[in-house]
Automatic annotation (TrEMBL):
Pfam families reported for this sequence: Ribosomal_S5, Ribosomal_S5_C
Species classification: Bacteria, Candidatus Curtissiibacteriota
Name of the gene this protein is made from: rpsE
Keyword Ribonucleoprotein on entry: yes
Protein name per Swiss-Prot or TrEMBL: Small ribosomal subunit protein uS5
PROSITE patterns: S5_DSRBD (PS50881)
Length: 153
């Protein structure tokens, strides 16, 4: 086992992994259909670091592992002030438009499925959000990540 593998094993203990979406994809070949999977994974340490990764492989477990590894290598740091974000942010990425607003202590996470997973993984306890434009979970996750990345403390 080399040092990079040991570091990734160390990461596994401190990061929370959540699978957002599992897509089964099929490719026509001369010998028949070739089936594979693409899995969208969100990882976070609940202390302000969060990342997202898309893993593709012939089986689901390998896809999850690949997605989680990519997400751990591409983490962003989210500024958290008193359990919420410092200011409002409205961001459009592709077809997805995400509005994130700070919320007072005790209000909890008021967010839809894809946004909820990302902000929980980041460790934000109080936030209000609205997703507009698309119902595609992958687009919403990437838009939420871009919105969190654009925050200024």
């Amino acid at each position: 086992m080399n040092s990079q593998e040991e570091q990734l094993i160390g990461f596994a203990k401190e990061f929370d992994e959540r699978v957002i979406q599992v897509n089964r994809v099929s490719k026509k070949t001369k010998g028949g259909n070739r089936i594979g999977f693409s899995v969208l994974v969100v990882v976070g340490d609940k202390k302000g670091k969060v990342g997202v990764g898309l893993g593709k492989a012939r089986d689901v477990s390998s896809s999850i592992r690949k997605g989680a590894t990519y997400a751990k290598k591409h983490l962003i740091t989210v500024p958290i002030v008193k359990g919420t974000i410092p200011h409002d942010v409205l961001l459009k990425r592709g077809a997805a438009k995400v509005l994130l607003k700070p919320a007072p202590e005790g209000s909890g996470i008021i967010a839809g499925g894809a946004v909820r997973v990302v902000v929980e993984a980041a460790g934000i306890r109080n936030i209000s959000s609205k997703v507009m434009g698309t119902k595609n979970q992958a687009s919403n996750v990437y838009a939420t990540l871009a919105a969190l990345e654009s925050l200024m403390p």
